[in-house]
Amino acid sequence: MEKIKKGVRLEHISKIYKDPKSGKEFYAVKDTSLNIEPGTFVTLLGPSGCGKTTTLRMIAGFESPDEGEIYLGDEPINELTPNKRDTAMVFQSYALLPHYNVFDNVAYGLKLRKVPQDEIKERVTRVLKLVELEGMESRMTNQLSGGQQQRVALARALVIEPSVLLFDEPLSNLDAKLRVTMRTEIRRIQQEVGITAIYVTHDQSEAMALSDNIIIMSKGVVEQMGSPQEIYYHPKNEFVADFIGEANFLPGEYIGKPGKTIVLRPESATLADEGGIPCKVILSAFMGSYQNYHVMVDDHLVKLQEYNPKNKKIYNVGDECRLVFEEANVHLLEKE
Description:
By secondary structure, the protein is an alpha+beta fold. Helix content is 25%, strand content 33%. The chain has eight helices and 18 strands. It has a six-stranded mixed beta sheet with strand order 6-7-8-3-9-10, with helices on both faces. A five-stranded antiparallel beta sheet has the order 13-17-14-15-16, with no helix packed on it. Strands 2-1-4-5 form a four-stranded antiparallel beta sheet.
């Protein structure tokens, strides 16, 4: 029987901590309300100290909110201990049991739940195939690479068939190339299983690659929630625009929009001999797939990436030229 998918709802959640140095109380998370749809992959993204990990730990049950209520499906779960919640966490440190082999690490949660032996074997075998570790059941975890250990941790969380899978920066201990491979795998498995996933990271490219929706947090508050495209093309404020991708900010006066701020992405503009806004090149670097420029527009620094520069005119440091962009390719914010 297929399990009913459940979403997660946070209603006016706050978490207050005391600063050990000053003794003053502060909000790690403040009056946060979120609705995470069943079966979606949602990423909590923001700088360190923004409240994303605290939010995840409250959903898992490792922290209790001081205000508000958390729901899994329609069930309020504030009073439930972590093992009574229909969730499973994949940690940054993998948290594998070193004296157990792969099979026993994955089976551990099922044994605690007193699942019959033959069902344990069937479920562990199935989930190891899903994470592409079949045939490695008898290996000890210290004989595995970092990527394989992360797959074991993922299998252990999936085998108990939770409604919601929680990820606390699970790829930050892996090298850059393996991170890209593993995030593709995590997304494939999440879609195949159809599970609701909530993922914490401070890596924006990871968030963009994985997510149906991204929640951007700053100082304990949700700044914006939306699809990667919405957040990138229609940021609500300068913090969001600056945090997701690279952004240039110019006064709206340059395009006859006083009182507005232009958000200009580096790939949305080009340099030309005429049209646009006068500028001066202060950096010109060939990067292979693109030419990287820094130009000054009056006293505003603007960073540009001109892709496929092979047959384009290359501007050098000191050149006076024009910064050209279409209004349709910029986003306007009210001046903060």
